[in-house]
Amino acid sequence: MNINVVCPHCLEVSSIEKKESYSEENCTQCGESLLDSRPIDGNANILENFITNSDLPVIVDFWAPWCGPCIAMAPHFELAAMAMPLQAQFLKINNDDEQTLGSKLLIASIPAVLVFKEGKEIDRFVGARSSSQIKEWVKQYL
Ligand SMILES: [Zn+2]
């Protein structure tokens, strides 16, 4: 069975074989590694691309530079993302830069982490969590 994923480098869609784990998997468009699962900086258009085209859960951290708990959680979110290559896809969105999107998604306080699956938000949490807590939360939706 194949799944579609969005390349974190070129943002094009690659169709790859679905596996339990991956040792190597490269983008069919740009050739860069799809295992590079550090959160990418997103915006409304990039989020739309991911939730429309990726068959993996899309995990989005809404944050802002002035938000202490957001800054504190950032390395934890990155660690969680790096632990789950090609299990979920991770984005960060600056809520100050994307206020229209933030209000559309009813982001009232940050950090807020949302999970999208099959084009729809299915859950969220608000407030900083540790990397292991984030991983446990994401695993429910894999
Ligand atoms: Zn690519």
Short description:
This is Thioredoxin. The protein has 142 residues and is of the alpha/beta class. Helices cover 28% and strands 27% of the residues.
User: What is the H/E string?
Assistant: EEEHEHEHEEH
Q: What is the share of helical residues?
A: 25-40%
How is the biggest beta sheet arranged?
5 strands, mixed
Task: Using the coordinates shown, work out and report the CATH topology.
Answer: Glutaredoxin
CATH class: Alpha Beta
Name every ligand kind in the structure.
zinc ion
Q: Strand percentage, roughly?
A: 25-35%
Average pLDDT score: 97
Poorly predicted runs are: none
What is the domain tally?
A: 1
Can you count the helices?
Answer: 4
What's the end-to-end separation, in Å? 16 Å
C-alpha Rg (nearest Å): 14 Å
Oligomeric form: single chain
Q: For the largest beta sheet, what order do the strands appear in spatially?
A: 3-5-4-6-7
Structural class: alpha/beta
Q: Could you state the CATH homologous superfamily?
A: Glutaredoxin
Structure description:
This protein is α/β, with parallel strands linked by helices. It has one domain (about 35-140): Glutaredoxin. It is built from four helices and seven strands. It has helices spanning about 45-55, 70-80, 100-105, 130-140; strands at about 1-5, 15, 40, 60-65, 90-95, 110-115, 120-125. It has a five-stranded mixed sheet, with helices on both faces. It has a two-stranded antiparallel ribbon with strand order 1-2. Helix 2 crosses helix 4 (about 130-140). It binds zinc ion (ZN). Belongs to the thioredoxin family. It comes from Sulfurovum xiamenensis. This is Thioredoxin. Keywords: Disulfide bond, Electron transport, Redox-active center, Transport.
